[in-house]
Amino acid sequence: MPSGLGAKLRRMNAASPAPPRPNRGGLLALRHRHDLEPGLLALDSTALRRIGWTRGAFDVRRCLFMDTETTGLSHGAGTVAFLVGAGYVEGDAFVVEQFLMRDYADEPEQLARLADLMDRFDCVCTFNGRTFDMPLLEARFTMNRMRARWRDMEDLDLLPPSRRTWKLRLGSCRLSQLEERVMGFSRVDDLPGRDVPQRYFDYLKTGDMDLLSDILRHNEQDIVTLGTLLVKLAEVYAAPLEIGNRLDAFSVGRALERQGEWQSARAVYRLSAVPAPAGTLDALRQQRVAGLANWHIYHIERRNGNVQAMLDVLNTMLAREQMTGKVLIELAKYYEHRAGKPSRAVEYAVRARAYTQDEEEAAQLDRRIERLQRKIALQKGGN
Predict the structure, then answer these.
(1) How many CB atoms lie within 10 A of CB 127?
(2) With 358 labelled, which of 49, 159, 208, 273 sits at a CA distance of 20 to 30 A?
(3) If you ran DSSP here, which 8-state letter would residue 57 be given?
(4) 96 to each of 35, 87, 142, 196, 217, how far by Cα in Å?
């Protein structure tokens, strides 16, 4: 570079120094007290097992409700939990503590304060914490050479049971959606989660603490909502026969069936198997779910060897025109293999063949019909 140009650049740099970095004052620690959610101290043990608690007795006073706000949604080395919030029961109140990094240099202190808090509890309750928040925090402890302070704690993650319970009806199970459509309240002027990282980056550039007030309020509400959501899930799974929505009843029945609670699942399925009033798109959806509920009831009865109950369910489905093709195939199988009546079996197989549009299934039915016809011919020849 020519010496004259170099001297000019040096003069420009000297005349335009970098703006001073805002003095942010270190880690910000906040503490809030809220009214205790009714029912939080009386959670049903069976319900807790059904929503995912796999350890022994659950003591909510030994549980830390946790949520993080981060600079991104990945687990990469550059993703930082700049705000960690944690709630817990203290006396007759629900306390929320928040640890906010006002600069990246605050992270070791933030993690140390969090470790001190975690040492007082036995487990955590999160919303998607099992796959995101907790692994991210563990990685940050490791990155800061504080791995010895990290504690692996049993995580009662409320996102999976929420999806199992309400996704069929709601589609989305974002926390704000659950607040509005399940718990009966909505936030006012809430900062969308997708805007949180950029808001924090803007704060780092300017040092304007007002940019963080919405983030702090959003995080605090998330933690309070965790307690409310836990109570709601426990109520649903403690008394599933009191579910008022057919779609939710089917979802809960399916969850109970997967856990091997067949009798309870069958009882809940019957709530959603009741025919819905006709005339609306929602009624059509509920009618489809009613058919699926009866289909699951049929398989439970078959698994338990309740032959007459199996037939009753299939005939009910046939009368209500629910999953007709599949029902006809099951009746054909029953009369061929269990009842030993190939003539009845071929009648149902022929009717099922008229319903199917799947080539492979049609070919299987053709082979079944041919086999049944041979059986009928042999029976007639024997007579």
Answers:
(1) 25
(2) 273
(3) S
(4) 11, 4, 25, 19, 11
State the pLDDT at residue 276: 74
Could you give the CA distance from residue 214 to residue 190 in angstroms, rounded to a whole number?
7
Strand partners, 125: 65, 156
Q: How high is the pLDDT of residue 359?
A: 93
Looking at 174-261, list the stretches that DSSP marks H as alpha helix, in order from N- to C-terminal side.
Answer: 175-181, 196-206, 213-238, 246-258
Nearest Cα neighbor of 204 from 374, 70, 23, 51 is: 23
**Burial of residue 316 (number of CB atoms within 10 Å: 0-12, 13-18, 19+):** middle
For 207, left (φ over 0), alpha (ψ -120 to 50), or beta?
Answer: left
Rounded to whole angstroms, what are the CA distances from 155 to 124, 193, 277, 305, 369? 5, 22, 42, 38, 54
pTM of the shown model? 0.88
Alpha-carbon distance of 101 to 340, in angstroms, equals 74
Cα(3)–Cα(265) distance, rounded to whole angstroms?
84
Q: What are phi and psi of 120, to 5 degrees?
A: -90, -5
The amino acid that residue 312 corresponds to is D
Residues with Cβ within 8 Å of 273's Cβ and at least 6 positions away in sequence, in order, are 290, 293, 294, 297
Nearest Cα residue to 219 out of 191, 240, 178, 241: 191
Q: Answer whether 84's CB lies under 8 Å from 66's CB.
A: yes
Cβ contact 37:228 at 8 Å = yes
Cα-based distances in Å from 112 to 8, 45, 90, 98, 240: 48, 33, 21, 13, 42
Residues, the chain: 383
Structure tokens at 38: 């009714």
Lowest mean pLDDT among 217-221, 286-290, 328-332: 286-290
**CA 185, CA 183: separation in Å to the nearest integer?**
6
